Amino acid sequence: MRMIDARHRAPAKSSFLGASLVIAALASSATACLGEEGTFVPPQPGHVSRLPFEAAPSGLRRLTRAQYLSSVRAIFGDDVVLPAPTALEPDNPVDGLVAQGTTVTTISPLGVERYEAAAYDIAEQAMDPARRDRFVSCVPTGVDDDLCASSTLAALGRSLYRRELTEIELGEATAVATHAGQTLGDFYDGLEFGIALLLQSPSFLFREELGTPMDPGDPSHLRYEGHELAARMAYFLWNAPPDEALLAAAEAGTLDGDEGVRAEAARMLADPRARDGVRAFVDDWLNLRELDRMVKDPMVFVHASPDVGPAAREETVRSFQNIVFDEEQDIREIMTTRVTFVNRRLAAIYEVRAPREDFGRIELPEDGPRMGLLGQVGVLAPNAHPTATSPTRRGAFIRERLLCDRVPAPPANVNTAIPEPSPDARTLRERLLAHQEVEVCAACHVFLDDVGFGLERFDSLGHARLTENGATIDERGAIDGVAFADARELAEHVRASPRFPQCLATHAYRVAVGRRETEGERGELRRIYARFANDGYLFRELMLEIVASRAFREASPPSEETDEVMP
Amino acid sequence: MTSFAKRLGISRRTMLRGVLAGGTVAIGLPALDLFLNESGTAYAGGMGFPTRFGIFFFGNGVIPRLWNPALGESVGTDTYRWEATGLLEPLAEVKSHCTVVSGTKVLTTNTNPHGSGPAGLFAGADLVDGTFVGPSVDQRVADEIGATRFRSLQVGVQPSDFCHSMTGPAMVNPPVTNPFTLYERIFGEGFRLPGEMGMVDPRIGLRRSVLDAVSEQTQRLRSRVGAADRARLDQHFEGIRELEGQLARLEEDPPMLDACGRPETVPEMDYPDLDGRPQLELKNRVICDLLVMALACDQTRVFYDAFSQPVNNMLFLDLATGHHQLTHDEPDPQPLHERVVRFSIAQFAYLVSRMAAVPEGDGSLLDHSAVLCTTDCSFGRTHAIDDYPMVIAGGASGALRQDIHYRSPSNENASKVMLTLMRAVGARAAEYGFGEAHTMDGLGAIET
Prior knowledge:
The structure holds two protein chains of two kinds. By secondary structure, chain A is mainly alpha-helical.
């Protein structure tokens, strides 16, 4: 768990659609769990919400590690050796999402050091004799050829800053390069320093999404235009910087109108790079980054190894990409599909024949216990303990990430011990039921555990089992007042719940804009959601509708007040 | 200026600088004792040894019943002699340097299990929007005493990007948890031992000119954004300034400290898990050795060591259950959780013993330090934040009493301990904490 935790920053009523109706989670006592089921208000066909639109404030967004790397790759070439992701400032999830961290967090002193080291490493590679002609199109007249340095830096700067450099910025970079060239006695060595400057500039490390007044006389209504909108679109749809075509469209004013935005977005969503946009979204939404540091006890699980987590991360991403790009299916299919993509490690856990190539497509058996997202190691394993499962954590995952229900933190000063396994209570399920007999625990544990019980067929690593400590597994549970028999029925229920695609859309929106939705955006979000539903829940349509929405393209000026929090 | 340098008729700085342009003539400096005064208690220019401040943090709380030592003979108001027993047994060998503080309470609200304790203790207020309301105590201390190459260092043993060292809300100083990376950062390119000839690289000056330009761009961008983003850019700006400072330090003579040496072995690139268990003890030793040498070389005076994380579910020792799960699920008397806490305290004891082994003048590096060992709640199972577990190692250059157990009889404000620590290590602080947790008084009973 991170310090920065959704449960403690969530405004009480922040559900995306309609009034949030507090259902005091199946409990009637005074100690009821304050968990909240997002209440679904079906959008009425043809009805456009009359909620007044109010744009959210503009601001800076720090590049994530993946965005830094994709930017460097796009701008300097595939053959440049990139810094290790761990050698860059870490991504800081806020409210459970790395994307939301980008609008809040800054760069630590250690981060400044790391970006500096990375900048010189990249600049040196760019000025390698075998590579530099890509960037330097002039023949330097000496160690300090101002013009040649300037034209090189102007072009690179436009890619890195995602806009033209100002005269001052270009002057600074050129002066640095020229001075360094003189000191070191070599034009290209000098240019390295100019490039390193661009790579360390806040205008590269942060995306400037500041907005422009729609009406020059009225600074209270802003719009993302040209380069700003291009970058906003590219990092959402591709998790990468704008390409030349998008920058050109931005400069030609094409992105100032609805049609231009839709046309560019459609082009981008048809481009293979859109797979990376979906990867970034799925990774963030389902918190898959945890998989890289997953702890499973190899003394208990023969299939546990350090590469299982990363493989499971890849599986989940690929199964989404398959539905979105290859099958072009209703995204809700992710809950029930039998198609997935495994390597040998995962195949062993799933007890299926390994595909010939890593992450080849397979179909799970029709009569097996496993299907869809809830049958994947990427969901089952990180939401469990190193050896034991955790119906509580798995239940919380389904509630929070798939249905956008609100789960409060456990209260302080309660005894959380559960009984040791005994002849009366051999399975974790039986032991956890003890919580449900204690009033103070019952409400939340019913809210979570009754959902998580549905996945008890899968051990902590995600391998299917029939017994625990010799007792037969009972995988029955209940959700939303409906009983289910097993994991497959639970998956069917989630798939059929209107809250599921709504929650998916909410998360996609948060990833797109880097923050929680505001009250003033609710109407726009309803409209986006209605289109998503009408289009048959095609994820690319959702992305397109988000990008084309006013909420994505308009802004209000940021507060001039310091956000002083007085405890 | 020492007699040796006078004999040569040049300043030390000139000696080091003089070899730059021409090449690589190295003039070794003789015994570093020359830079100490006659009694050996001060270095370079009559200054005393610097006072350092550190935090050693482990996750998931303790078992208070086994943590708090029995009250021994009274040695002042609410202070007692103590024995290293129970969970504190691993401190036996360094006990004479350690003071136990028990019975104080984090008086801010307890809304976030594992989060409210550190927030109240280190930032003086409960979490707001999931993060600290302002800088953590180590950063406030660094503001005052951090004028070294590294203003502060954040390290850890469990791999993580998080620790409680924060320069402001949501502004985490990520710890370095890879020993090799830490070695490179401190002792890699550019580091010189006291008296070692430098070949100052002209690139260092050029890097500083680049950072100047980056600073300019940051300031210009700052003028175009709202208040919240200004605060973010200010923080970024501070980081750039810090790096400029670091580069400047590399061009200067290193501080003349006897005990400073380059670590003899370069750490491994990687410390892979063995049988699914992280090599915590080995990694802790390497990280602590590097940290202690960084302190001995005066590369930093402030550190935060996140040995293990809040809510960590690592497999410690030979256990088959994750630690966090144990704290909650294991029935009384929690023998397995007990083993993990005891192990964690042994790791702290290693750090303390290494600091005590570094001679500085009449005493040791530890004598010129105060290191707080604490965790994220008192009783891990219930997330309670009263009777907060704290051990302080080191005398803070004579400001703190050692080898006593202070037992608050009245759930006193834990902020008082923090205020005392700040003042003891030379940070000016008139007050600590907000709301209920606010105090203007330290904990006099542990001060000398």
